[in-house]
Amino acid sequence: MNSKNTANLFIALIYLVSYSVCAQPNKDVQKAVVQIFVEEIVPDYTYPWQIDSIKSVSGSGVIIEGNLIMTAAHIVDNSLSIHVRKTGSDKRYNANIKYISDASDLAIITIDDKDFFTNTSLLLLGQTPNIGNEVTTWGFPLGGSQLTITKGIISRFDFNNYTHSGIHNIVGQIDAAINSGVSGGPAVVNEKLAGIAFQSLEEEGASNIGYIIPLPVINQFLEDISDEKVDGAPSVAIETQSMINPQMRKAHLMSEGMSGLLITKSSHGLEESQDYLKTGDVLLEIDGLSVGNDGTVTFMTGDRINFRYLFKRKQIGSSISIRLLRNGEELTLNHLLKYNSYQSRIVTRHYSGFRPDYEIVGGLVFQELSRDYILSGLEEDEYPSWIWPIYNDYKEKGLSEKEKAVFIATILPDEINIDYADYEDKRVKSINGITIKNLDELRQSIKNNKADFHVIEFEKPAGKIILNKQLEKEKREYFIKKYNINLDSASTSLN
Questions:
Q1: Interval 263-282: pLDDT, tens
Q2: Of 58, 104, 165, 183, which one is the catalytic site residue?
Q3: Which residue among the candidates 58, 74, 352, 425 is catalytic per the annotation?
Q4: Read out DSSP for 26-89?
Q5: Is 74 among the catalytic positions?
Q6: Catalytic residue at 105?
Q7: Long-range contacts of 468-471 (CB under 8 A, 24+ apart)
Q8: How many CB atoms lie within 10 A of CB 473?
Q9: Which of 105, 224, 281, 425 is flagged as catalytic?
Q10: Based on the number of CB atoms within 10 Å of its own CB, is 215 exposed (0-12), middle (13-18) or buried (19 or more)?
Q11: Longest dimension (CA), the chain
Q12: pLDDT given at position 22
């Protein structure tokens, strides 16, 4: 055989081997991956009694133990209908949400028709992979109907923002982009589930950087729903400052070799208990792990990660051991984890099925500020200055008290509100002398007003809106008819 024929044979053998590997993926994994089709509502945040649109989206999912399908929460969010197709089938089966955790961006959906699970397999949970492990993502990206497999490696683990909710948790970074349609599908290491694909890094200069929801988050979610309800992941309402500067450590009476993190603000609402964190405390150790001066703790990969991950891996109602330095004295607290990030935020984070509550007074449309409104209703260069100081703020009161930022989302033009346009997108300070902390307080202050005028005051900028009470009442039906307002879509109304 001449050298040319030998070379051709060698190339052909390489092709056959490559074809065999690519054309025959792991059948068990393949039969565990599903395609999800959703019809969803898109709310109108400017005119909240309306629906902006209904759109069709698709994503992926994976069958796990118990004939359950796990996917990303943002795939089935605000769904009107959900249908699922298993790999290799053309039939779509009706599905329902059983559990959804927006903060973790995870959901469990179920299918009543048990025929769906014929000729399928399930994917077992593995172990948290090491950095450098080979990972494959499975799913149905836009642009085609075929199952695709993308190969990469686990690049790192970090504590980062979840786009769906705007809340931080652990992410696994892989060197493969997560394209639309793949979200919700499995990331597989050693033929077991290592994570759920859910978002990509979309920044200039970034390419092929995808993120998976890693096993620590999945395990916390599955344990959370074991009692058949979703409580979410715990959070701590504290703000902190690093202690890298040696003068900072010395001023807070830290001994040589001691590391820790300074609490600059604590808003737990647990003042009746001794087991709460105070402003001025220095966090030394959490759940048995030493806290670094930069606010990190050791992670299972051998590197370090933000200390807040230690709380996220626990369950609401459990306790966590915290060793701290208070006025130079070391203390150990058995801290009860009572609430999650949704309960503590002044600016509401996104949750499934979220529809903005509202009230209309004299054509002024009041809402409680939400992240959804910020992202949908404002351009980044138009954010009012008052928003960001409270965006990550926590409640100062007990958790039973609802504290939100009430603002004017839009103004329906009419003679009653002429010359008040400058107060659109401005936060309300008080109404009729009553400080306003939520929409219910706004409604009560309007109902209980005995004066002839409603006086709405603002702080940034300082100023006020004055409405004739009788005229406002007479105009109410006019606004309802002219703007086709459905007051039933609000929590309550003034009618």
A1: 998 875 444 455 678 899 99
A2: 183
A3: 74
A4: -HHHHTTEEEEEEEEEEE-SSSTTSEEEEEEEEEEEEEETTTEEEE-HHHHTTEEEEEEEETT-
A5: yes
A6: yes
A7: 468/416, 471/362, 471/416
A8: 15
A9: 105
A10: buried
A11: 105
A12: 42
